[in-house]
From TrEMBL:
<dbReference type="Pfam" id="PF13369">
    <property type="entry name" value="Transglut_core2"/>
</dbReference>
<dbReference type="Pfam" id="PF13371">
    <property type="entry name" value="TPR_9"/>
</dbReference>
<comment type="similarity">
    <text>Belongs to the UPF0162 family.</text>
</comment>
<feature type="domain" description="Protein SirB1 N-terminal">
    <location>
        <begin position="51"/>
        <end position="182"/>
    </location>
</feature>
<protein>
    <submittedName>
        <fullName>Regulator of sirC expression with transglutaminase-like and TPR domain</fullName>
    </submittedName>
</protein>
<dbReference type="InterPro" id="IPR011990">
    <property type="entry name" value="TPR-like_helical_dom_sf"/>
</dbReference>
<dbReference type="InterPro" id="IPR032698">
    <property type="entry name" value="SirB1_N"/>
</dbReference>
Amino acid sequence: MLSADLKARLGARGAKPVMTALHLAGELSQTDVRAFEGCLLSWRDQLSLRLGQQTKGQPLDALLDFFYQELAFHGDNSHFTSQGCLLTSVIRERRGSATALGLLLLYLAEGQGIALDAIDFPGYLLLTSPTRPGAFFDPLSGFWHPMAELELWLRGLRGNWQRLKHQHTEPLDNQGLLLRLLKATKGALTRDGRLMEAVKVTQAMVEMTPNDPYLIRDRGYLLAELNCVAPARDDLRYFVEHCPDDPACALLKNKMKALPTDSATLH
């Protein structure tokens, strides 16, 4: 289902999230990603040259100007679509989701030693930097906002009863960042009806966090929709056995009973 090279990248602790995400997007679209890798390396070199010529101002401001003005990246108004998540499309079209744009910014920042972090804010990737204390950055709009607004964002996303907690501003590590992008990609592919590709993205997440019952359940749902009965039943049974108290178990048991006997072959 996934190539050996991609599996190795998913399991490597030192792998750069942007490169792993790019190779996954390449496998999904059957695209050679070497030209896209060349773009990323070229942009790093261009940014390095720009910073070397800079005599005043913050490197972070130069990075953001380079990304949003010179390279003309911008947020995709339909950023919940799969094209806004897959890096091959994002790099080609210069537009994407907050998570995809944030991932590219973090890659460029790391190459120049610019302090920039992703935070574990629910449902939306945001960035912070010690050079801009008291503020957070929205990759989708390209603007900084006062940290005091963050709870209002949380209420807008999750409901007015929500309150901002320390965990919402915890930095994301590389694995957490990649999982955030893959989760968004899986959801977008599912909404777009690209279920086989959604299965592959879910499998990539399982490679990173083996035996996660909720990911295995999600894979089972998708496999059932694709009429891959045997692996779907195995996945759903795994979830029921490992999470017997989950409220969804009764529904899943009924779904397993309703699965047909004939099965499609998964490649």
